[in-house]
Amino acid sequence: xSVLVTGGAGYIGSHMVLELLDHGEDVVVLDRLSTGFDxxxxxxxxxxxxxxxxxxxVEELIRKHDVDAIxxxxxxIVVPESVSDPLGYYLNNTVxxxxxxxxxxxxGVPHFIFSSTAAVYxxxxxxxxxxxxxxxxxxxxxxxxxxxxxxxxxxxAAHDFDYTALRYFNVSGADPQLRTGQSTKGAxxxxxxxxxxxxxxxxxxxxxxxxxxxxxGTCVRDYxxxxxxxxxxxxxxxRMRSGGGSLVANCGYGNGYSVLExxxxxxxxxxxxxxxxxxxxxPGDAVAIVAEAxxxxxELSWKPKYDDLRQIVTHALNWEKKLAGRNRQ
Length: 329
Ligand code: UFG
Description:
Blueprint: E1 2-6, H1 11-22, E2 27-31, E3 46-49, H2 55-64, E4 67-72, H3 79-84, H4 86-107, E5 111-117, H5 140-158, E6 162-168, E7 170-172, H6 190-199, E8 204-208, E9 220-221, E10 223-225, H7 226-241, E11 247-251, E12 257-258, H8 259-270, E13 275-279, E14 288-289, H9 294-300, H10 309-328
Parallel strand pairs: 1-2, 1-4, 2-3, 4-5, 5-6, 6-11, 7-10, 8-13, 9-14
Antiparallel strand pairs: 9-12
């Protein structure tokens, strides 16, 4: 029996592979290496380079490796990019997920875990935002993920499989042992960008919008450590295997930090005062989004270990320094 991880050579996927291996699971990674790296996949896992929409390949893998669960990370994740390339996002995130779900149903894979997002809520009417809030995505990215959630909901009702959709808030940090981390080229995520500015990879960074209706005028987000996030997936897998059924749950801590608070935390942890420039709003950005995190804790008995912004920043920074050292060699 093994677990198929799509996008397992990417940032979150590679942490998931480690989490599964640490728990003694057999892991097959399917990744086309468009943004991921083969070196990010540990040797103990089987890496297959290919596309999730290649049904012949996917179904061969499912049968050959006796896959009982698919954890689906492969997809595009940059909110502003989805605004300028909506069809690319609907193709990668929705159409290709349809193909993968179809393969799962056809081969009788009983469990499916989907990497969803807080972007399905848009700018919620209240926060923290619970799973039953209305879904009002404000970007093609959010819509593309919402559509996949709906396909899973309806397919699970019609066929013999369970799914867990985990709605991620802002995933950051790196494996505390630095076995992997966020290595994406041209990354746009706040903590990653700030850490790249510390190591000198960037000369400065920008703050996108200081005129939002928030205490300091910058957007508020709920930053969650990647290792806690993948642990929630592992617990979700265990829950489904023991008959817990389908579940939709937020993955965040329930703490909101503004862009300026995050930048100050990075300056403080790194003891570096880097150049920060104020820019206009970025398309597709929600004003403030913070998780109501109870369902994940209750249903999965999830006990986060790194619920602390400075800890997240420390791990992200350590990884960034490791990457910078590697690039100098
Ligand atoms: N930001 C800056 N400067 C930067 C980068 C980001 O000011 O250089 C700001 C953004 O404008 C935003 C905030 O920092 O206000 C967070 O932006 P990120 O790019 O780090 O993350 P997003 O909130 O846009 O999106 C992320 C994931 C999504 C997920 C979402 C959930 O990419 O997958 O968090 O809140 F859905």
